[in-house]
Design a protein that fits this description.
By secondary structure, this protein is of the alpha+beta class. The chain is 24% helix and 33% strand.
Length: 280
Amino acid sequence: MRFWLTLAAAALLAAPAPGFAQQDEEGCKDHPMLSRFPGYYISECAAHDFSTYDFTVSEGAEKKAEGRYWKISYWLKEGAKSASPVQLSRNYANALVPRGGVKLFDDVEETGGTATLRLPAGGKHIWVEVSISNGGEAYALTVVEEAAMEQQVEFTEAELARALNEKGSVALHGIFFDTGKATVKPESAAILASVGGLLKADTALRLEIRGHTDNVGAPAANRTLSEDRAAAVKAYLVKTFAISADRLTTAGFGDTKPVADNATEQGRTQNRRVELVKRN
């Protein structure tokens, strides 16, 4: 749902002067949830599926947020009436606070400054920084919607073989399941194709498939879930690549063998993994 700003009636659009600089930068648009203050155009923008940003939460203290990232810079159109820095900051606060948002930091004065807001959304947060300069003639929105990074780069067959030969095991983060379930999702196909190809190329290779979870949920349920997920991966390889079932064993360790801090979303993502262990 789009969060429309409460805009002061006095801030009216002026007729833009002819020329490129009065139009939005090509390919740029407002954030899906936050409109611009009237009379401003987008001078530049950046958007990434995953990035990080350090938001100021108090004097001298910052909080790193990671997820979907936008930075949108606005500049006052020629002839338009500039909003004051406080007016800009409060408009964005008034758009978010009634919906559960919290103003964490506000250091905005007559010449400009920075404000940080945080909005709860689906168990995570949307972070917003309003950075104002030139007495309100220019401002920028930096927005991060918290989310774990989706793994895009996977092991090739050769890389899997090397890792197994050198270390005896390899952790795979590209095998996906729905929360609390053990059905292999279609987006796991790429990495499982590499595993299946390796097993077909090296017919002497035998593997133990080990499931691991984060610490969300009861330990006993996590162990059962990890066992079921390992078994689901085995069944997928047997069915899809005609791998002999006796070449694959399975085990589940639940949340007992974390490799990262379960206190963070990034750490929990690392702990949810399938591990391949080479058997003799």
